[in-house]
TrEMBL record:
The protein's name: TetR family transcriptional regulator
Matching InterPro entries: Homeodomain-like_sf (IPR009057), HTH-type_TetR-like_transc_reg (IPR050109), HTH_TetR (IPR001647), Tet_transcr_reg_TetR-rel_C_sf (IPR036271), TetR_C_25 (IPR041484)
SUPFAM superfamilies documented for this protein: Homeodomain-like, Tetracyclin repressor-like, C-terminal domain
Domain of life: Bacteria
Transferase in keyword set: no
Listed PROSITE patterns: HTH_TETR_2
Keyword terms, alphabetized: DNA-binding
Species for this entry: Cellulomonas avistercoris
Entry annotated with the keyword DNA-binding: yes
Domain HTH tetR-type: 19-78
DNA-binding region extent: 41-60
Length: 225
């Protein structure tokens, strides 16, 4: 018999009848993988989605294909949220996103599980994150809401690795009492890190260009290959 959710943990999702069976399966898989990792069996996902395991195979063909569909969905939703926040979003949009942070918890948990699992799927996932970041950062630069960079792709990679790595390290330093409580993990990280991160990205850290100028001079002095 399955036990109920622990205190502070979001309950198992109730299948949304307005979604297609394929979308219900995908969303149930994202939520399960976020809480328990990629070792979860298809029967557990099927139960959450209100379908049979056979129907999962009918729609996706294999567990690997299901994970690929989950990857694509998580990347798309994150990309759209980032675009809204960085390019078109004003203060009301940003406040709304903060208020609805719990709805993003399964996506964050899914990304963390992918990083923890490692291997080629994790590397591919990060590369997609970097490519998406490069696009929405370029849009933000064009819209005037972000400053340009001397190396836009390198900046997109740094921000991606910095964001995912900081969250993973924070979980290591502050191990959650319940590793399946993605909402609680996200709230704790937000409370510890959101203000200094937003402040740093908004106002910067250094008051002059001395360190940057020194590094640029170092690069200029390097012999050409």
């Amino acid at each position: 018999m399955r036990s109920g959710p622990s205190a502070g943990q979001a309950p198992d999702p109730v299948p949304d009848p307005d979604l297609t069976a394929r979308a219900r399966i995908r969303d149930a898989a994202v939520a399960r993988y976020a809480r328990e990792g990629f070792g979860v069996g298809l029967r557990a996902i099927a139960q959450d989605a209100g379908v049979s395991a056979a129907l999962i195979l009918h729609h996706f063909g294999s567990k690997d294909a299901l994970r690929a569909a989950c990857d694509a969905h998580v990347l798309r939703v994150v990309r759209e949220a980032k675009e809204q926040a960085l390019v078109t979003g004003g203060t009301p949009d940003l406040l709304l996103q903060l208020a609805s942070m719990d709805s993003y918890a399964p996506l964050v948990g899914y990304a963390l599980r992918s990083m923890q699992a490692g291997g080629e799927p994790a590397r591919d996932f990060v590369e997609h994150f970097v490519a998406d970041a490069e696009v929405y950062i370029a849009e933000a630069v064009a819209a005037g809401s972000m400053r340009p960079s001397r190396d836009e792709r390198a900046r997109a990679r740094y921000l991606t690795v910095q964001g995912l790595g900081a969250l993973l390290l924070d979980m290591t330093l502050h191990p959650p009492a319940d590793p399946t409580d993605v909402v609680g993990i996200l709230h704790a990280y937000r409370d510890r890190m959101m203000l200094p991160a937003v402040e740093l990205f908004t106002h910067g850290l250094m008051t002059d260009d001395r360190v940057l100028d020194a590094y640029l001079q170092h690069l200029a002095d390097q012999p050409e290959d």
